[in-house]
Prior knowledge:
Blueprint: H1 17-25, H2 35-43, H3 54-71, H4 74-83, E1 114-118, E2 129-136, H5 151-170, E3 180-183, E4 197-203, H6 207-214
Antiparallel strand pairs: 1-2, 2-4, 3-4
Helix pairs in contact: 1-3
Amino acid sequence: MAEHDLDWASCPFELTETDIENLRRGDEHFVPHGWEELKHIIATNNLSILKRKPSDLKRYIYWTNSTKAEYGSMTHFVCKERLHWTPLPSSSTAESGPVFACKDETPFASAEDFKILRNDWPYGLDPNINHLVVWLKTKIPVQQPEGYLLPESRDRIQRFVQNTFVDRLAKEGIDGGNHVQWFKNWVGLQSVRGLDHFHVLVRDVPEHILREWTGDGGP
């Protein structure tokens, strides 16, 4: 089935009002998110207005449907193909999501229990902004059922972002505090559920540092 033949009623995740409006308007009217706009969106927790370029969103929907058909779920795909993590079959359930053997149950305490990857399907951002995702084997405590961050969880992530991203940029003479932002989608906005993760946006970061964080060879 070609992309233009997709049945939007079978979308594999819930489209936001912003998604629907952008699909109606098309690429010719799309304006990517700039840094200052992103700061406002994150500060006000108005994450539902984050958007992808309409043609990218269509491809993402098509790819997600195809991937779920092949792997059974997005979580299974991410674990197997992107993270190379194997869940514990005896402990993992539909309700709990994948459960992993961890070096330390405390989030971020061990580098073996998290991984930083480039987002394969980033939001529509200015070209100088890179979109990373931090995936965790451990669970970050959140409010149930919505999945909003608890204050102590927000503080823990902030410390990790400071130590991992901001302080690293400072070594290069870059004011990391003005070049790094992060957010964690609540459950209703997540397309990969059951596997804890949050998003990091960085701007004007040299490629060698991006590779250092992600351990890859580039896009």
